[in-house]
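Hi C.,

You asked whether I'd gotten around to modeling the 265-residue construct. I have! Everything is below, sequence then structure, no commentary in between.
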Amino acid sequence: MSDQGTKDDPILLITDAAGVRTLTLNRPKARNALSVGLMAALQEALNQAREDESVKVVVLAANGPAFCAGHDLKEVRATPTRDAYETLFKQCSELMTSIVRLPKPVIAKVHAMATAAGCQLVASCDLAVAAKDARFATPGVNIGLFCSTPMVALSRNVPRKKAMEMLLTGHPISAEEALAHGLLNTVVEADALDSTVAALAETIASKSPLTLAIGKEAFYRQLEMPLDEAYLYASEVMTRNMMARDAEEGIDAFLSKRAPSWTGR
């Protein structure tokens, strides 16, 4: 199979159900390594989800024995030039940033091992649910390549000393450890992973899409601000949100004890 996959066996599967778009990494033989082709396909799918008003929530999943093994090292070593490396890491960084900046919640559904840029992918998502036997690692140090770009997302989820331990040792942590240190929201039995993620996505998809977009953007922006500046910004956001039709509808529905009817306006 080529890096682009085939019509019958694409490297990225896209399915829709009740406002939830699931993007499934489909390079199982390569442990879903993030090749240039797979990153491009994922980027395109995220761009399409941004523009598609029927999509309320995005789920990132994977097929095969691993969730994602990070970069495709065979591909990386095939073109050992500075320009190629700069282009590769720029593409990956833009992909991860686009997940954070997508105005729709993104949930990682992690069934197995996520390493290096695969761990970065999980950390970049807004929410993450994993099976109990999933593992997480930033093992670049073991091959002489410190996980510097995965570090950006990891250090924004996991406390400093735990993040440094993962980065300096390369040792994997369990799903339960990842949960305890903030990388995950929930850990479940493998046979409950699909239903747990589906229920979470369905709950979020039932909310006002405008409110979700406003809130997600505000969440990440205020994190980088000093406290006083964050409150000023958040107050402005809430004022703007209050002026939206969906806020009026939501409050009126609550007071009238009825279900709201969202317009996305």
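If it helps when you're writing up: The two ends are 44 Å apart (CA to CA).

Thanks,
B.
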